[in-house]
Automatic annotation (TrEMBL):
Coiled-coil positions: none
Name of the protein: Thiamine pyrophosphate-binding protein
Family: Belongs to the TPP enzyme family.
Organism annotation: Paenibacillus taichungensis
UniProt keyword NAD, yes or no: no
Domain Thiamine pyrophosphate enzyme central: 192-325
Residue intervals of the Thiamine pyrophosphate enzyme TPP-binding domain: 380-524
Length: 543
């Protein structure tokens, strides 16, 4: 006879999970201690939200299940933002929260997770693909199998289980876990309709979203684009789906994009959309009169397919990589209409500023890093500067969420990715606003010897909000930090090596030193406060 906690820990180990992230407490203690007993390394965070982001970074890096846990009550509610972020990014993460013993339901309890106070099972439902309170140990096998099949299924995403204390310790004679096996899902009939649409089109365009990187379909994208000689642009979150200097790449579009890519959006009669929802961040500069006649959309999630553009839509469901591989395998049997394309310089000149320009730093930063690195970019104006200027050499090495866009997520994600890939150079670009929210996770990296390089862009303000509000309302209420962050001192107090850079030369020296040290390093980058971010496309009007 073994406990539910035993069987859970064994199942996670058999799934290949090596690390779990969270903050321990009474209500979740039995499950977490068993995970440690079964060989899973526990990375204790400083805030549950960051532990959830770390589990997402682990899932993104490995392609396997990420695991984050918290106690009942406020520990669980602190995980909600990370769960919604994982859902928006199709990341398979199991969120586990504690709960008072079922036998004690109805009694007022500290950190209550029941329907009498903070019903975590109910709260997590809209933020995950599945959320369930496990009320009996003999139900756990069925519920866990169902949760895993959803998290690791065709439309990957987070799931949540709320485990009462007495259920975790309940002894069971038998327990069966079914490890989900990947199953190719291919839209054969619709794939057969793609070639005629391509042959009819005079100006086709590939829009590559973050789904390309999630499916690890970079080679397939490249072969498809080269076979048909079709230009490629990327959504803000899709940045890095293709190398920056490939002849068919025409830059990012939308917020953080270049005008040339937006011009292609407005001139094309056929979009081939690979793993993008076509949110306002991507098509904000597309004029209604210029919607394409036809749209081919590869997306495992049908929620927004065919609902955004006034175009005849062909939906290709299932896994993006599997579908592209199948399509490419059929092309040798069919003639291809030759098409001319022109290689262009899609960039615009750098700004001329009296102080350090972030755009100029990002323009050359990838030259200072090894080819095998991964860059996690936080949300804010610095993120869209990176979308526009960072020169991605290795497809899939640039991670940015422009959709759910929660500040501070990249800090935890970088830690989770470094946990999964200790040999890879992991870099995080964050802002002073993000750093003030979740910057204490630097100490998590220090305590667990996870040498991530953190670059904190410090312009002493909530820059994206300030510039947007100033342009649209003439006001900047709540966007200036009266007492600015000293990121260098803060980082040193958390145990990291820290540098301050106010010039290009100082930044280059600090980044080179950080790579040589192989320690957790924070580089505070003081940039020109008046630099205009490439975010002016989205505006609001207040009546």
């Amino acid at each position: 006879m073994r406990t539910v906690a035993d069987y859970l820990a064994e199942a996670l180990r058999n799934l290949g999970v090596t690390h779990v992230f969270g903050i321990i407490g009474k209500s979740i203690c039995p499950a977490v201690l068993k995970m440690v007993d079964y060989g899973l390394e526990f990375i204790p965070g400083r805030h549950e939200s960051s532990s959830g982001f770390a589990a997402s970074g682990y899932a993104l890096q490995t392609g396997k299940l990420g695991v984050a846990f918290a106690t009942s009550g406020p520990g669980g509610t602190n995980l909600l933002t990370a769960a919604a972020h994982a859902k928006a990014n199709n990341l398979p993460v199991l969120f586990i929260t504690g709960h008072q013993s079922i036998q004690e339901l109805g009694l007022p309890q500290c950190q209550d997770s029941s329907s009498y106070l903070a019903d975590l099972a109910e709260m997590f439902r809209p933020a995950t693909l599945f959320s369930k309170l496990v009320e009996r140990g003999d139900h756990f096998s069925t519920i866990l199998n169902h949760a895993l099949s959803i998290a690791l299924g065709p439309n990957k995403g987070p799931v949540h289980l709320c485990l009462p204390f007495d259920v975790q310790t309940e002894q069971l004679a038998d327990f069966r876990v079914v490890i989900p096996e990947p199953e190719p899902l291919i839209s054969v009939s619709n794939l057969n309709r793609i070639l005629p649409l391509l042959q009819q089109s005079s100006h086709p365009l590939i829009i590559a979203g973050k789904g390309v990187s999630r499916a690890r379909a970079h080679d397939e994208l490249l072969h498809f684009a080269e076979h048909f000689n079709i230009p490629v642009i990327t959504s803000p979150g899709g940045k890095g789906a293709i190398a920056w200097d490939h002849p068919l790449y025409h830059g990012p579009c939308g917020v953080g994009g270049f005008p040339h890519a937006d011009e292609l959006l407005n001139q094309s009669d056929l979009y081939i959309v690979l793993g993008s929802r076509l949110s306002d961040m991507t098509i904000c500069n597309l004029k209604p009169a210029n919607h394409p006649a036809h749209l081919i959309q590869f997306d495992a999630d049908p929620t927004f397919v065919g609902k955004i553009l006034n175009a005849q839509t062909l939906h290709i469901t299932g896994d993006l990589k599997d579908n592209l591989q199948f399509l490419l395998g059929t092309l040798t049997e069919r003639p291809v209409v030759p098409r001319e394309t022109t290689t262009v310089d899609y960039t615009v000149p750098l700004p001329d500023l009296p102080h350090l320009s972030l755009a100029s730093i990002l323009e050359e930063m990838s030259e200072l890093l090894p080819f095998d690195h991964k860059l996690f970019v936080d949300d804010g104006s610095h993120g869209f500067h990176a979308v526009q200027r960072y020169k991605v050499k290795k497809p899939g090495s640039f991670v940015f969420d422009a959709y759910f866009a929660c500040m501070g997520n990249a800090i935890g994600m970088a830690i989770g990715a470094k946990t999964a890939a200790p040999e890879e150079t992991i870099v995080c670009i964050t802002g002073d606003g993000c750093f003030m929210m979740l910057g204490t996770e630097i100490n998590t990296a220090v305590c667990n010897n996870l040498p991530v390089i953190f670059i904190v862009v410090n312009n002493k303000q909530l820059d994206m909000a300030l510039k947007g509000m100033e342009k649209t309302t003439g006001r900047i209420d709540g966007t200036l930090f009266e007492v600015p962050l000293d990121a260098t001192k803060f980082a040193e107090s958390l145990g990291a090596v820290a540098f301050r850079a106010e010039t290009r030369a100082e930044f280059i020296s600090a980044l080179q030193t950080a790579q040589q040290l192989n320690q957790v390093t924070v580089i505070e980058l003081l940039t020109d406060r008046d630099e205009i971010p490439p975010t002016a496309h989205r505006t609001v009007t207040l009546n």
